[in-house]
Amino acid sequence: MAETAPRLAALDRDTLGDSAYQTLSDALIKGRFQPDDRLRIRDLAAELGTSVTPVRDAVLRLVQDRALVMRSPRDIRVPILSSADYLEIRTIRLNLEGLAAEKAADAVTSAHIAELERITAEKERALLAGDGAYATELNQVFHFALTDIAGMPVLKSVLQRLWLQMGPLIAEMYRTSGLEVVEHHHILIQALIDRDGQAAAAAIRSDILERGAPILERIRRAEREAAAGAG
Q1: Fold classification of 83-230 (topology level)
Q2: Higher-scoring residue by pLDDT: 18, 10
Q3: Mean pLDDT (whole number) for 162-167
Q4: How many helices (H) and strands (E) does the chain have?
């Protein structure tokens, strides 16, 4: 099934700068853009229903976040991560998301479990329907829900900046994924039901490692091809 990229929502004129930043951040985290996509400020402004100024400001903030790269004022792109950058981000995620899962096991309620199960079931339906974009969005919601359950908003803000860089790569992987990407989410939910923090942390770390393996291999293959071409 062919996917159509969702349109960006028009902005509230009272807080244009922050709204532009948040909207573009959400789009990156949820895989609205792909690695090496070129973003044109005027096109984004038209889609968001605002002038170029708040969009330019938002883009500059995202460049500072390393979520975008500015090759020139007219050439702004979604970055292509190196394998070294990817491995650094993965190491941080393993530690921080593992911590969130472990702490969530202490604070989880039946309502939290029901919501995680709902997200997971909806994600499975999206995958079966071939809607990788929506499955990517639900995956992000699931992961961030752990920091909410754990009551760790500072940790969530740190992870959001990492996911700005990871979102396009995860979305690219989800376009060809099946139900295997949900396996560790089920294991994690059971660990939370059991209030087993160590098992919950192990489940989310396994999810990051196994689901990230094809992403890392794709990055390394591209680096090998680039090196061969340069030689």
Answers
A1: Four Helix Bundle (Hemerythrin (Met), subunit A) (1.20.120)
A2: 18
A3: 92
A4: 9, 3
